[in-house]
Amino acid sequence: MGRDHLLALRPWESPETTSWQRLPMNAVDRRSGALSLDGSWHFQLLPSPTGASGEWTLADVPGVWTMQSRGDLPQYTNVRMPFADVPPHTPAANPTGVYERSVDIPAEWAGRRIVLQVGAAESVLLVHVNGRPVGISKDSHLAAEFDLTAVVRPGDPATVRFTVVKWSDASHIEDQDQWWHAGITRSVLLYATDPLYLADVTVRAPRDGRLLVDCKVRDTAGPLPEGWYVTAALDGQLLAQDTEFDRLNAEDMRVSDFYGEARLRTVVRDVRPWTAETPELYELAVRLHRADGSIADSSHHRVGFRDVEIVGRDLLVNGERVFIRGANRHDFHPLTGRTVTADDMRADLVVLKRFGFNAVRTAHYPNDPTLYDLADELGLYVVDEANIESHDHAHEIADDPRYLPAFVDRVSRMVLRDKNHPSIIVWSLGNESDYGANHDAAAGWVRRHDPTRPIQYEGAAKIDWADEQLASDIACPMYAPIEECVAHALSGRQTKPLIQCEYSHAMGNSNGTLADTWAAIESTPGLQGGFIWEFWDHGILQRVNDGRPAGRGGVGLYGNGVTAPGHRWAYGGDFGETIHDGAFIADGVVFPDRTPKPVMYEHREIAGPVRLTYDEGVLRIHNRQHFRGLEWLAAEWLLVGADGTTRRAPAPLPEVPPGGSAEVPLPFPPPEPSAAGETWLTLRVTTADDEAWAPLGTEVCVPQVRLAAAATDTAPEAATGPAVTLDEDALLVHPSLTSAPRLSLWRAPTDNDELGGMAARWHDWGLDALVRKVVDVREEGSRVVVLSEYATGAGPVRHEQVFTPVSGGIRIEESAELPAGLDDVARVGTVFETVPGLDVLDWYGQGPWESYPDRSTGAPVGHHSLPVDALFTPYLRPQESGGRHGVRRFTLSAPDATGLAVELGAPGQVSVNRYRAEDLAAATHHDELVPRPGCVVHLDAAHRGLGTASCGPDTSAGYLVPSGSHRWEWTLRVL
Ligand code: IPT
């Protein structure tokens, strides 16, 4: 019957009802010593909250039912709601999960206060215990606690029932760009306290060593008993009360007692400050004593002493203007959907740290509590974001008084939960929810409750970055062109730090111009960085035969971003959704199995703690950190010569203060100008010791400088070799090739090419299906000249190939004349295909990882070698991938060392893989791709940059392939 009482309230269509009988949020961690209720629960899925009961089955807690084969599957939408009903209404078909289990309440809990904690439930939680209504909660990403003392009997079993309603008024403010799921997503636990208990603990620890601990003490009986007091110890040392604040306290070592509030003020000497580079933590134990000295309750916190403040237009951490090299991160897992373990989260943050990130925005809701513990411990700055995104109905909701309680509730409860984490430097009011009075109300609450941290909210800052809005202390735009950011910083109007809340959209093969963006940030006072969108590609592991999520078993994970046969990474539409936003969910810097995408190496280099410069014969090592020296790093020199050699030498790192630099001697005698061709010097920097996020020897960055340029005046080889053979179509006949070299102007569109409109233009021009017409073939001595023409929608393209026999091979000089209308093509170059068996690529050029003209800073020039199959990058939706930039020469060889060698006249973009561009463009997922037996080889004289046009700026003009004349030259030899 009780269940019906709560249902009768229809709380899922009542935005004013944020909770009923839920305990106030607090920062006392009750996880240790609690009784876990995780595991298998009885479960049934009803068609609506009031729908008829059905069959009981079992379901995992924590876990979303949408990933547990219940018939209600994941659905992906970005901005639009998955249903048409306007706020606060919900569709009649509203899947509702009923979870039930019996719990033995420990007999020794007699006389204690018993509390149920539900880590997170999506989107409305109704709780009944022993048939009695216990409470209601909303906010899919924060815990709810309910006092069960009056409804359970220690020593007896109790029946706990959760009714979880999927769609609610709250769904309209949880319209984040992610999969829609439903269920219990975080752990459920039961704990007991003394009737006299710590209701909350607030810790403030500025970097001057002051420690301020405020405790809220309560007693279930109401009035507090006489004589209670609180003590605290830091790293085991009992803290003495600072006398200045001791007025209300009779005894030393004790704290004041004022209406259940206890305050401790003290100063810690010689404090080791916390920063993301130096995550120094102290253990604080707070104890609540009864009058007789016995301990009634205790609470443990890890304290980091640090300051965060905005001075002028700079965000300062411990007085330093730190660069924010952030990533947006969701709680995501390819097997569970939403539920993540401590190990999962640690692995996420370790990857971020290893690739140079120092900040996380918890997009777009408070993350699992463990995430913040790990950020404190590993060293990451956090922008903690409230669970508010009303994207589809943003304008109506921002000022809708019915939603006012929800805004204040969500923001305040996040702050109450997370306030003690040193890693959190900024509170965010949410995402993409327009700007209204509801935001100002929430901001007002935070300002009063926690004046120690700034607030940001993109919606408030976006109209005018300089406007002194109440709701945002930071100008935090998303996807703003860097030129606009620079112009703002130079305008004289800037009033706030400019830190982009989202930038450089990592969908598919993307993140072009990251290095240019950072060069602008670092050289423009007022610009401080941003958060890449985003960490994860949210592909769900799916069985192809029946379309079900593969689930927790994990069979089907393969590694290196690839799924095992019979599986694929599902994106929007793959679960039969009719309303969805396709592959827009796959826009992270790591694959769904957490394999880093090539952009991560680019980011690692840009963010690297060490940089090299070589100017007028002076070699300098720069410390790019804000707080640390170089003691924690080791290094090695690599001298890379065009002659194919790599020489190594130890590289003792000099003492360099943060932000400073030191001249170091050249580790090798300076190369003779041009005699030996170009010469590069690489500093391979690794961890000198085990770090919390990397074992000793982990590569941290590989900065490189050029010591000598290539000789420019090498005379072309005279014609010598055997005659060139062409077939009846005037195409080259060559024993290593199954398809002769032809002109290529197209690539399998990247997501940026698709969503930026380039792919459609290229298709309209017919670049994806060029038809070659031979215009002229003539012999000039031993040279053969072939002139052909390709019709395009913007006029004909003239292409000339001049074949010259040279010793052991053929030199091919090519030119292409692109008509003026063909002013932005994917590439201009040559494509050919090889015989099977040539499975290893050795190259001299940039690498070893994938690189493109506008994403090549992190790929040093060197002598690289990889199996052909490892060159390809399996972006979720197949597209152009696997390219290598700045390639000077390469060989493709079989195990018996036979094969072919190519020398490029000038460094070019090369790709070698098993797929033609049209194979990639035709496939929607990787399991559809059939590798060709030979290699498809592209040599590009020009290749378009990648940009980020799927959401944000396209590549810059300098990386476009212009119309007009292009010339390139290469030599093909047999090994
Ligand atoms: C913006 C969102 O904040 C983010 O959640 C994500 O959707 C991202 O873009 C794109 O993947 S919203 C966009 C309409 C600018």
Q: What topology does this entry show?
A:
Blueprint: H1 2-8, E1 19-20, E2 35-36, E3 39-46, E4 57-61, E5 63-64, E6 75-77, E7 96-104, E8 113-122, E9 124-129, E10 132-138, E11 144-147, E12 157-165, E13 178-180, E14 183-193, E15 196-204, E16 210-219, E17 229-234, E18 237-238, E19 261-267, E20 282-289, E21 295-303, E22 308-311, E23 314-317, E24 320-321, E25 324-328, H2 342-354, E26 359-361, H3 369-378, E27 381-385, H4 394-398, H5 404-418, E28 424-428, H6 437-449, E29 455-456, H7 458-461, H8 482-490, E30 498-503, H9 514-523, E31 527-532, E32 540-543, E33 557-559, E34 562-563, E35 567-570, H10 599-607, E36 610-615, E37 618-623, E38 633-641, E39 646-650, E40 661-664, E41 679-687, E42 699-701, E43 704-708, E44 737-744, H11 751-755, H12 758-765, E45 772-780, E46 783-790, E47 797-806, E48 809-818, E49 827-834, E50 840-846, E51 861-867, H13 868-871, E52 884-893, E53 899-913, H14 917-922, E54 936-943, E55 964-974
Parallel strand pairs: 25-26, 25-31, 26-27, 27-28, 28-29, 30-31
Antiparallel strand pairs: 1-10, 2-14, 3-4, 3-7, 5-14, 6-13, 7-12, 8-11, 8-14, 9-10, 9-12, 15-16, 16-19, 17-18, 17-20, 20-21, 22-23, 23-24, 32-35, 33-34, 36-37, 37-40, 38-39, 38-41, 41-42, 41-43, 44-49, 45-46, 46-47, 47-48, 48-55, 49-54, 50-51, 50-52, 52-53, 53-54, 53-55
Helix pairs in contact: 2-3, 5-6
Bound molecules: 1-methylethyl 1-thio-beta-D-galactopyranoside.
